[in-house]
Amino acid sequence: MLTSNSVSDQFFQTVLSSLDKSVSTDRGEEVREILCREDVCTLLNENLAEFVHWLCQSILKLHKRASDSVLSVLTDFLNILPLRFDVNECLLLLTAQLDLSRSTIASGYLLKPLSLCVIQSGFARFARVNPIFNKLSESIASIFDVDSAPCENEDLHWYLECVLSFYETVLSEYTFSQFRSHQDEFLSQHLLFLLARPFFVIECENNTRTLFCRMFKLLRLSEPGLFTQFLKSFRCLDDKRSVTIRTSIPLCLLGPAWLRILSYVFLEATPEDLQNTWPLVFSKDHFINLAHGLLITVLDIENRLKFTEAEQTITANCTALRPLSCAMYTRVQIYGVNLLQKLSSFCGRPICSSWWIESRVLYLSLLKKLATQPISGENMPEIICTTIRVFDNFISDSTYSSQYVLFLRFLDPKQLNEHHGWRGHLITLCKDYVHSVWLQCMHTSMDTVCLQEKAYGETSVLLPVGKHLFSRLCELIFVYPLTASSDGMVDQSSWLLAALNMALYILLRCHALRTDKKADKLCRNLMDGLLRNCGTDSRFNQHFVQPLERDLTSEIDRYETRAHVLSSTLGTHCDHAEKKRLMGEYDVQQSALLRLRLLASTLERVNQTLRDL
Which domain of life is it from (predicted)? Predict the structure, then answer.
């Protein structure tokens, strides 16, 4: 004999079978009629957990189908669940489905009914709705992760729309208190996370700008006095080199969020978007001053652990907000480097010496550290390529006088632990700089170039084609050995080759222009500055060429001897493993010899050109 429960179960399974049949045959009205029957609603109420699971699975299957009539009926019914059944039970069941969901599509459809559950149940028992926000941030962190393959852009935007609509609905009924409760801190941190994470991964398009504008409006609800909050978060000390962060929010969340907010405020938002939210009195050339504290915090690699390890505790049980992965931290730094360049472009071009105060020269020092960090692999990482490009642009966008001062600062041969590849790059930049000034002075005149520099705002004009000024540059470039370096010549070959190429360029060009009377004075200035004659010899020869030639000969002999020994050993009988090891070492010796011989041949060309002159 069947009990009432077994009869009810059978009837429920019959209803689900009918619904499955109607769904599979795309009969939307039939599905609606079944769900609206009173006896079915009573039955669903008794089996709500199983029905909610069936409903979510059916919606997920229908999401990509061409016809959406049945999908519309099912999503409409899902959205009104909190209105037709017990709201507390719906909250628990829908939250459980959100936890079980492995699909952003399923999660997206759950958010609208969940927002109604949160509003109807109220915020008195906030612990019951905390898991929803944590789950959303977890899914955002998982989806918008640079280490994983992203979903299709269409699905990403759709999911962000769903998350954003959820926050808009919930926060429309929530009031942030003046004294910042735990609930306020909890919601504010999740909003900051929502502002930051997705926009470092997806492409910035028109529809993403619209989404960000809506998110920014939500942040205004949680952070009244947004500008004041920013100044409180990143306060520079008097020397503008250090930053005091006065907030309990960890840097791994605060840094990326404010980086994206400032990018929106300074580069994307209209005055109407910022009305009553952000002061509109600042001129564009002041933007970089406002962002200074944040920029040096993000760009300084000494802060890496603060971004990638949990040195600061996430407050208010925001369990989903983890420290940044190394890949995401790198993406944030790339974003910061690009933002620095964009904000500096508002300061006018070319950049004169008065702009390069100590706190702004700090940008170049931080860029240098980023560009010279250790790498693994043959390909140059994006962060290093981007940093070098921005550093080079800062140099080339400066006046000739500014560039001269910057080269004096960064070419100092006494710097400890100097990266030889970076020094070589700077020397190449300096060669191009001298070439540019030289050509400009030849095409017009030195006086004309000086007047142009003054028109740009330079009070003291410094051009490297003057004998004494060029001599100061050469004192920094053409010095060997570097007293602050104990590295071998092979390791230093990059900067040595760059220096030899610069000397060769000066010598060959002066040799080519020796019959040009108009260029005679400039050529003599540059030759005298390069050689710096003292008595019968020159400082160029004494402090660079001779010691380099002596060590180079010794190094080539040493490597040739070692290569010969290895070659002889390889000719004898030895086991496979030993032969493989010896071959690897032999290849290293040959590679080093190739670099040393290139140095030697370039040095010989320099000496030959000197003799010809």
Answer: Eukaryota
